[in-house]
Amino acid sequence: MSESLTKQDVKAYRVQGFSCAGCAKTFENNVKKIQGVEDAEVNFGASKVYVKGQITIEELEKAGSFENLKVRDEKEQKVDHEPFWKQKENIKVYISAILLLVSWFLGKQLGEENFLPTIGYALSILIGGYTLFIKGLRNLSRLQFDMNTLMTIAIIGAAIIGEWMEGATVVILFAISEALERYSMDKARQSIESLMDIAPKEALIRRGNQEMSIHVDDIEIDDMMIVKPGQKLAMDGTVLKGTSTLNQAAITGESVPVTKTVDDEVFAGTLNEEGLLEISVTKRVEDTTLSKIIHLVEEAQAERAPSQAFVDKFAKYYTPAIVILAILIAVIPPLFIGGDWNTWVYQGLAALVVGCPCALVVSTPVAVVTAIGNAAKNGVLIKGGVYLEETGNLKVIAFDKTGTLTRGVPTVTDVVTYSRSEDELITITAAIEKGSQHPLASAIIRKAEEKGLYYNDIAMEEFQSITGKGIKAKINHETYYVGSPSLFEELHNQIENDQKEKITSLQTAGKTVMVLGTETEILAFIAVADEIRESSKEVISQLNHLGVETVMLTGDNQRTAHAIGQQVGVVDVEAGLLPEDKLTFIKELREKHQQVAMVGDGVNDAPALAASTVGVAMGGAGTDTALETADIALMSDELNKLPYTVQLSRKVLMIIKQNITFSLGIKAVALLLVVPGWLTLWIAIFADMGATLLVTLNSLRLLRIKK
Q1: Phi, psi (5° rounding) for residue 671?
Q2: Rounded mean pLDDT of 476-494?
Q3: pLDDT one-digit tens code per residue, 504-518
Q4: Which run of H or E residues covers position 496?
Q5: How far separated are the first and last CA of the chain, in Å rounded?
Q6: pTM for this structure?
Q7: In angstroms, rounded to a whole number, what is the distance separating the alpha carbons of residues 670 and 690?
Q8: How would you list the strands of the sheet with 210-215, edge to edge?
Q9: How many CA atoms lie within 13 A of 47 on its CB side?
Q10: What ranges in 33-87 are assigned the alpha helix state H?
Q11: Where are the membrane-spanning stretches (predicted)?
């Protein structure tokens, strides 16, 4: 939705029956002309219209009567689509085809000169091409040249020169190609509609002592939702009572169920597999994670990819050029080289048909809409065709370390003590660290709690943070320091060689070393490590295999960073970086490689995500910041969807290139047949319809790509 159409003053409607992007544009223009409408915008990919102003469904359907469009309120239950073969547009094709066959048979029996076959062909043209002629003649009166205009001129021209049978065949085959285009777009849109059906429309709510089934629109924040085993959650919320495993595949794409207990966040559309859960509702139905996903997917499908913008611009000049070429083919040979008028007008009409840009126009949108829908079903939210294409061109992917390649939960791995017991020194360190905001402090406090140490009972005085180096505090009249090895090099002038070697060996193993000591001695080394995600090594290996260079960005020291980088297999490691340094580094990578992605948590890495070609946020499920700021959100808190996304994007680029090349190539070959005079309307329509069919089927192959 454009900025002029904001959520507050716009009503959305679902539209059924769009056959092409051009028809969607015509419908949009018709709606804008209705009295009381301030603005309107059609999303062809999602098959929706957004209207600002006062309008009724009857008025909308009247605006779409040229294509028999059906309109319903966005919030209404989805209506069952008629089977493809039963649709009204297709029934007209059957009647037209039967009339064509009967007329052909009569022509064989009575002779082509008989008026009965001609009447049959004329009826076949009128019934099958009625809608086409309305659009084509309207466009012709405005000097707008699109596929409907070209086909209208060609069919009327065929009738004028007496080629009734071929004119009727052109109508039927064009109608079939349009039906196939409709079918392919409906197939692509089903990826969104299947998302809408994930969450139930009603939920069991307890208010006071009464339990009642309530429609999701009427459920309020803080309502108590009861979800029994085997039921799906209708709303987002927080577990207040109960423990169960939830299948979150609908949101995150992960099929492995996740255990949820008290205070855990849960999402609409997920399946409760085992226990009874009592959940406090935290969001209204329009704000749930699932609703946001659906909204963002629809927005993404409306956004034109760069190649689509190119095709649309190309078609704008290509179509009038084909009309001029057809006129030249029809007129020049009879005028200058004594050619037969009938023969060359026929060749000109055939050139019009073969030049019809159906396949070219549909070459990109079907591929983009299909791919974005497929990605959403697999737990990857791609915000638009532009990011889909950019991902396919990526040369480098930069990863934040903490919380991306690692779990972001540091744990104490080694405690090396000097002169006192481990428990005593851990107790002192935890007592000091409880006043710190540093992430590593939580690891030491957890260690003390695991060991059952009473660090809270220790009286601490004169707590002070030493910026960038550590902290100090007084306990029992003695000042203790906790910080980096460099802090103690300043305090003691130097660290003993055997202690230096121990620090180096711990850092080389990928651990961060914290030192506890006084102004005169070192009491302990505490090594903390951030656990590497199980999927990181495999994901990095897959990306390197795909030819994408991988870089790790971290604020850690060089030794620790390189040890972790080596474990996961990244090509390059950049250590000791502040947030502004990451931003600078991403800019440098873009200057060098042009196409660069940044993978982070969507919060701390926001500047670097914004500066990259494609910003990828981890754990988009339930994280509003990730959904809003990133270009691509991996809905699960794992990286294993990243190689799939790169492969899907590359496949999209390949299919779009194949489609454009094929649709233009087949037309070029057919037009060359004009030179020896071999081009017929039969060849022309089969070239056009064949190209449209193959381009559509080629795009639908994207539905089969799995993780």
Answers
A1: -65, -30
A2: 83
A3: 888 888 788 888 888
A4: none
A5: 30
A6: 0.70
A7: 12
A8: 210-215, 202-207, 224-227, 277-281, 237-241, 265-266
A9: 25
A10: 57-63
A11: 114-133, 153-176, 317-337, 349-373, 660-679
Q: The tokens of 284 are what?
A: 């209204």
Interatomic CA distance for residues 170 and 685, integer angstroms: 6
Phi-psi region of 574 (alpha: psi -120 to 50; beta: other; left: phi over 0): beta
pLDDT digits (tens, 9 = 90+) for 69-84: 888 887 665 545 555 5
Cα distance between residue 125 and residue 123, in whole Å? 5
Closest CA to 524 of 413, 412, 415: 415
> Which stretches of 219-305 are DSSP H helices?
249-252, 289-302
Alpha-carbon separation of residue 11 from 5, 40, 67 (angstroms)? 9, 10, 22
Task: Describe the chain by its helix, strand, coil percentages, rounded to 5.
Answer: 55, 20, 30
pLDDT > 70: percent of the chain? 87
The amino acid occupying position 234 is A
Going by pLDDT thresholds of 50, 70 and 90, the confidence category of residue 235 is very high
Between CA 460 and CA 479 the distance in angstroms is 10
Do the Cβ atoms of 265 and 279 come closer than 8 Å?
no
Lookup: tokens for 636: 């699960």
Among residues 564, 567, 539, the alpha carbon closest in space to that of 553 is found at: 564
Neighbours of 444 (CB within 10 A): 28
The SS3 call for residue 148 is helix
Identify the CA nearest to 135 among candidates 4, 10, 19: 19
Give residue 466's identity as a one-letter amino acid code: I
Contact 168, 124 (CB under 8 A): yes
Residues, the chain? 707
Strands (E), 196-266: 202-207, 210-215, 224-227, 237-241, 244-247, 258-260, 265-266
DSSP 418: S
Residue 2 burial (CB count, 10 A):
9
Question: Pick the residue with more confidence: 162 or 414?
Answer: 414
Q: How many CA atoms lie within 13 A of 130 on its CB side?
A: 15
- Partners of 281 in the beta sheet? 237
Nearest one of 416, 639, 401 to 530, comparing CA atoms: 401
Backbone torsions φ then ψ of 523, nearest 5 degrees: -100, -35
pLDDT in tens, 279-323: 999 999 888 888 887 777 777 656 666 776 677 677 677 778 888
CA atoms within 13 A on the CB side of 200: 17
Beta strands at 572-574 and 549-553: parallel, antiparallel or unpaired: parallel
Structure tokens at 229: 């085993």
| SS3 label, residue 575 | coil
Distance between CA 502 and CA 426 in Å, rounded?
A: 19
pLDDT for the residue numbered 687: 78
Q: Is 327 exposed, middle or buried (0-12, 13-18, 19+ CB in 10 A)?
A: middle
State yes or no: is 400 an active-site residue. yes
Strand order in 258-260's β-sheet? 258-260, 244-247, 271-272
Query: What's the count of helices (H) and strands (E) in the chain, helices before strands?
Result: 24, 26
β-bridge pairing 632-634 and 614-618: parallel
More confidently predicted of 389 and 622? 389
From 146, 223, 236, 400, active-site residue = 400
Q: What are the residues whose beta carbons fall under 8 Å from the beta carbon of 436, sequence distance 6 or more?
A: 465, 471
Cα–Cα distance list, 191 to 46, 194, 195, 197 (Å):
10, 5, 7, 10
Class of residue 16 by CB neighbours under 10 A (exposed 0-12, middle 13-18, buried 19+):
middle
Helices 558-568/497-508 angle, 10° precision: 30
With beta carbons less than 8 A apart as the criterion, state whether 323 and 351 touch. Answer: no
